[in-house]
Amino acid sequence: MTYIKHLKDHVDQEITLKGWVYNYRSSGSLVFVEMRDGTGLTQCVVAKDDVSEEAWEGATSLKQESSLEVTGKVKEDERSIGGYEIHVSDVKVVQIAENYPITPKEHGVEFLMNNRHLWLRSQRQWAAMRVRNEIIYAIHNFFQGRDFVQMDSPIFTGNAAEGSTTLFETDYFEDKAYLAQTGQLYGEAMAMAHGLIYTFGPTFRAEKSKTRRHLTEFWMIEPEMAYYDLEMNMDLAEDMIKAIVKAVLENRQKELEILERDASVLEKVVSDSFERMTYTEAVDILKSDETAQMLDDMAESRRQEKMDLEKEEEKIKKERGSAKKWRKAQIDQRIKDISARVDQIEEDLRNIPTWKESARNFEWGNDFGGSDETVLMKQFDVPLIVTHWPAEIKAFYMKRDETDKLALGMDILAPEGYGEIVGGSQREDDLETLKERIEEEELDQEVFEWYLDLRRFGSVPHSGYGLGLERTVSWLCGLSHVRETVPFPRMMGRLHP
Ligand code: 4AD
Ligand code: MG
């Protein structure tokens, strides 16, 4: 058996492929099967005269997603998908599929989500999962290459670490357990044993809002480093993100093309230094006249673009009547694209006044909302690291600066409106201060005694952060919603399939 991705090594040879029908077309004595085998797509051409009667019967009974084995000669063909074509000498049907629900026509999101188990076979979904896999591999590579020890932190936990409002509670024999919101506290314990560690596992938050950035089950990568301060923490996170983006650019070109992801914006992330500023500086930018002006300009250019598109649409619609068949198809496609873009522009035009208002009236001390992050990141084309946050809005475990008002936290915002991908901090390492924080937050000190032990026995300055895997996939693939970044997304209102 040969895989489609290896066709280049088999030009003019006879090979056998095993896979599924991605697309099917027949015309008289020819059948064209666009076949997929998990590694790629290729066109198989079956000519009635070249195959046995049985094979021809099989070939003509195929339908979308039927499974089959194909034997044939590999021919180079630039025009063909993937650059090769199989001149078929034999076809063996494995199973004739029933009427496949996902057709090349457009489907609504709900329908696709209900058929997620099948939707995963579509090209874009396939490409996104390959990028996800590449990111996972790059992360392990990065940390293992720096002698970090991977640790598995527990999923059943007894303490809340990221606020009590998003806890999933479950029975645990006579007790209650929570699904882990983070592995961090356990990571800190492990870091005191190994120095440099990272967790890579599922985390759970009962997010009651439906947004394009929130899942209830998501994968988080949490390194924790003994003797690292905030600065070293930032440097590590920047190096890690660069390594991930670099790996995707180098190894997943084809997938980025399928996703129509503009690689040049990602190349900048690898080559340029990230922006760094304090929360207060970021707030100043948000509230500035320049930002208001930038949003006005943006609205103006969107309006102009919309007018231009509408003019173009009018023009090609007129041309359509007398156009040849191929040109008609081209025009129809263009009209579809224009309509999608206009929808997007209209959404932006509805949003911009709200963004502007929210940015202008932003009050120091609040957390950034999704729209504030978007507006802020309109001004940068590399990730932005925001540090020194108002302590009140950050977690109890964060160390504070000398004013005692600012937490030594760092959030990393992705460019292009993909939002916060990393949250981290230097940790409070003083026993008494940490006890006070636990009391202030009205947390149960008893369940944190083990965590306090880390400050009783050889406490050291230490830092760490958490990278959200799905948000990273979403950003690198250019996907507008995290539901397409994980095989079976879990969100409010989505538990099946
Ligand atoms: O900022 P967060 O809440 O930080 C922590 O959990 C720390 N304990 C991490 C640490 O310092 N070890 O979450 C970290 C990242 C976010 O920046 C975001 O990328 C992702 O996790 N994240 C989510 N991703 C998808 N859906 C959700 N509901 C998410 N909540 C957080
Ligand atoms: Mg956060």
UniProtKB/TrEMBL annotation:
UniProt-listed GO biological process terms: asparaginyl-tRNA aminoacylation
Predominant place of localization: cytoplasm
InterPro entries: Aa-tRNA-synt_II, aa-tRNA-synth_II, aa-tRNA-synth_II/BPL/LPL, Asn-tRNA-ligase, Asp/Asn-tRNA-synth_IIb, NA-bd_OB-fold, NA-bd_OB_tRNA
Molecular function GO labels: asparagine-tRNA ligase activity; ATP binding; nucleic acid binding
EC number from the UniProt entry: 6.1.1.22
Compartment(s) where it occurs, according to its Swiss-Prot or TrEMBL record: Cytoplasm
Listed SUPFAM superfamilies: Class II aaRS and biotin synthetases, Nucleic acid-binding proteins
Coiled-coil parts of chain: 242-348
The entry's keywords: Aminoacyl-tRNA synthetase, ATP-binding, Coiled coil, Cytoplasm, Ligase, Nucleotide-binding, Protein biosynthesis
Source species, domain of life: Bacteria
Reactions accelerated catalytically: tRNA(Asn) + L-asparagine + ATP = L-asparaginyl-tRNA(Asn) + AMP + diphosphate + H(+)
Start and end residues of each Aminoacyl-transfer RNA synthetases class-II family profile domain: 129-487
Description of how the protein assembles with itself and partners: Homodimer.
Annotated protein name in UniProt: Asparagine--tRNA ligase
Origin organism lineage: Bacteria, Pseudomonadati, Balneolota, Balneolia, Balneolales
